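Morning run. Coffee first, then this:
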Amino acid sequence: MDRMDHARLQQSAKDHLWMHFTQHARYADAEVPIVVRGEGAYLYDQHGKRYLDGLAGLFVNQLGHGRTELADAAAAQARELAFHPLWSYANVPAIELAEKLAGYAPGDLDRVFFTSGGGEAVESAWKLAKNYFKLTGRPMKHKVISRAVAYHGTTQGALSITGLPGLKQQFEPLVPSTFRVPNTNLYRASEITSGYLDGSDPEAFGIWAADQIAIAIENEGPDTVAAVFLEPVQNAGGCFPPPPGYWQRVREICDRYDVLLVSDEVICAYGRLGEMYGSTRFGYQPDIITSAKGLTSGYAPMGAMIASARLMEPFQEPGAMFAHGYTWGGHPMGAAVALKNLELFETEGVLEHVRDNRDAFRATLERLLDIPIVGDVRGDGYFYGIELVTDQATRATLTDEQCERILYGFLSPALWEAGLYCRADDRGDPVIQLSPPLIIGQAEFDEMESILRDVLTRASAML
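And here it is:
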């Protein structure tokens, strides 16, 4: 790429491209990073510089970049049938993919409704829950319970379920009837429980957190609550794993009140935690799984809502219809890519690779706990968050000024400059998130740790 071409691209990006979740003013006097190529676990920018992809794009690229098998699958399907909608018609890749996803899913989750992304899968799940209860004689059941700080998407319904006020207030009024319960940030257990529990007994904290769902259902009235939306490992706030016993108690509560349990696995499905579905990792049975991202390793946009067979039953009556859908849902090319992606999962032993290496990934990241700014390292599988603090003993978090100056002003650009693409964020508490391609091992873990150590040590000196 010559200089003139580079200058033209920079100006065009600044003049015409509206980037997502981006403060464009940051690029008034700075270059817009332009990623032009990927190979394996690495990305290359417009200058030819290499970066370790520590976030798998956006929790997406499970098998790494440059996989010609996936590109070839898309091309072959495009030559045969590029597109036809699922509106009263089927296509072969969508049928085969639905069967495969149902086969992987736990219990009786046998029905697959395709979308073009994760937010649409969440939107579909809420609409299904409300429609299902109306058709089965419980029309008042429409409300949703979700967790504080949790992110579930940006469409109006999914954003209403999201528990991040800073992302919602500028778009209000949103869809009513959503309610929040505490999340499972064990590191902040004392704050979350107002001093009732200090986190030293993870199981007690897990049971307490689950019981808050029952209290919320009782407060709203069990006859009005349709669903609980929870992630296996909560993303926003920095990768909160479930404490022992949490999911089992949540399942009991949902059964007691006849509430659907929606496992939002847009990030946690398709190998991220070492299993095809995150619910399998933690041994619980959801009524619906929402998924996307890793389904195609990012080689085509695609999402899927996977529902219990019983939720389909009312829609099989004469004249009944789930009046919902998307133009791109079940796109033949996307389905063909997903099928090839899942085939490679099996032939290359991707799930086994994650299970074999996840403890080493954790141990490598935990080396960083000797840096004063590092308060907590948490997560599961190939999905981790590093929470930043000003004092390890008191767990004091960064101030707004420190977040702006250190997290965004220094850490984010410094990590990129050092050759690591990851995510610095303060949704909830300030964290660095890591979610690399599932193909990496100890060499890449060490590279990641080395870069993080250098940059975090420099950040510590800025406190």
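Residues 62 and 437 are 5 Å apart (CA to CA). Good start to the day.
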